[in-house]
Amino acid sequence: MGGVSRIIQTPAPASSRTGAGGSDAGKAAIAAGVTVVLWASSFVAIRDIGHSLAPAPMALLRLAVAAAALTAIMAASRGRALRFPASRRSIVLVMAYGVVWLGAYTVALNTAEHHVDAGTAAMLVNVAPLLVAFGAGLLLGEGFPVPLLLGSLVAFGGVVVIATGSSGDRDTIGVVLCLLAAVLYAFGVLVQKVILRSVDALVATWLGCIVATVVLLPWLPQLIEQLRHAPAGAIVATIYLGVFPTAIGFSTWAYALRRTPAGRLTASTYAVPAVSVLLSWLLLAEVPGVHGFVGGAICLAGVAISRRRSRR
Q1: Is residue 6 part of a domain?
Q2: Who's near 291: CB < 8 A, 6+ residues apart?
Q3: Which one, of 117, 114, 116, lies nearest residue 166 by Cα?
Q4: Is 191 helix (H, G, I), strand (E, B) or coil?
Q5: pLDDT digits (tens, 9 = 90+) for 252-276
Q6: Which domain holds residue 126?
Q7: Global pTM?
Q8: Which of 1, 22, 56, 299 is the most exposed place for a label (fewest CB within 10 A)?
């Protein structure tokens, strides 16, 4: 984790508000790419967990592992100049970020996937980047760049294509929970963008995971009971979710978000369904159908369009 730790602790340059340049922009792009791959891998890992752990207990274990991993990184970072929340406002925002995105979003998505198939869940949750694009334009002054809006619509079309090729149950509860997860996701990104103006990426992610873990502690007895009967594979998969997609993935995401407009960065997550299809093919030998190939290609094309800079 040493390399990742160094990346997510690097201070943001003064130009970060309008977009980093040079090598810093390249590091942000690499961090975003790491996040996309790790978040995509979470869909593959969740397949192994199945119904061994209920939504809230699974989220609790995942976030507790993430908090422990980030605490180890923080301990190894002693002596570095890290910025912590220094005002009541920043403390409240960090708590809101932890409760809403890391806590409530994770539980909502875990629950939703008991009611809808993965393709439908991916399609509905990917309303979030559109919400972030409009929210960032209205509330954070990022505006509405044409490439971002066009690329987001193209990428979302690719997600729809992937979803139409999936089969499974779809009910109203699952659809509502997926849309709720999308709203929580979007809110979390916008709040996090504000936090990162005064708090380091590693610190924000670490504190957010601790807050989310504390909020989910009422489900600890249920988690302990379910762990007694859960297969080893499900436990290992949940630990993986905590260390990689959560601790590392959310930290590299925060690093990139601090240096990239929220709308533009969030549009890159449209690549997650496409990468998830690829990983399922490589790791689980699940050969994607025509919808998976075509939809994945459209998603990636949309992401490429969204990352183009508007001509001024």
Answers
A1: no
A2: 161, 162, 164, 165, 166
A3: 117
A4: helix
A5: 999 999 999 998 898 888 888 778 7
A6: 21-77+85-306
A7: 0.82
A8: 22
